[in-house]
Structures are given as C-alpha cells and as structure tokens.
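Hi R.,

Here's the chain you asked about this morning:
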Amino acid sequence: MIVMHDADLSTLGVPAEQLPLVQEQVANFWVSPWYAGLLGAVERVFAICFHLSAAVLVLQAFTRKNLIWLWAAILWHAMVDGIAVAAVSMVGPYWTEALIGIMALISLGIIFALRDREPGLGTATGVAAVASGATDSAK
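And the predicted structure, written out as tokens:
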C-alpha cells in the first residue's frame, strides 16, 4: 500500500471502470487508524486457538469412543461463528475481535483441560526418568 499511496493507478493495469473504486479503497486505507490493519493478524491468532480447540474436541470423540465430543466440536464451531457474524454488525469490528479474543481464551482453556498428561511428568523424578530413557513399564 505504501507504493500505491502516490502512484498513478491507471498505469498499474487497473481497468478504467474500476479505477474510481480502487482509488477510493486506497484513500480509505490511508485514513483508517494504523491498528486497523492489524485486526486481520490478531484474528488469525485467535482463529488458530479456536481451531486447535475444535480439533482437540474431535480427537476426544476417537480417544474416548463417544460421539458427544464430535457434536460438542460442531456446536462450539457454530457458536463461535454465529457470535462473530452477529457481533460484527451489532458492535463493530473492534468489539467483535474482543469477543473472539474471549472465545480464544476459552479455546485455550479447552485445550489445556483436555490434554493428556504422561504419568510422572509433573515431578522432577518423572522428568529425570524420561530424560534418562527409563519408563514405568521398564521398572
């Protein structure tokens, strides 16, 4: 966008009928606050947290052999999408990202609540046993 700030857009191959629209979009970019461009990056970080939590919920359907976890993942996905779509038209992009951020924190809670822990890794002796190659089955 820095290149397009003062560039003659007609020389960049933009069709003549689309030139006013492109000029308007470039002008809108330059009058928006600097942090508005970061919303997309922040949203991607939140989306990664959410998608990991949904994957963990689906994984539970296989590890626990119970389809309720699959339905939980589907409902969680529908709820997050529904809230995001409704919020963007009701409260705007910044508050929507705040809501998605809260859901990303909930997603991290899901990930950490459902993670499997290796037996003995919570203690110093368990870490030393893993580092030395010893396992509970070898004892």
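The chain has a mean pLDDT of 84.

Let me know if you need anything else.
M.
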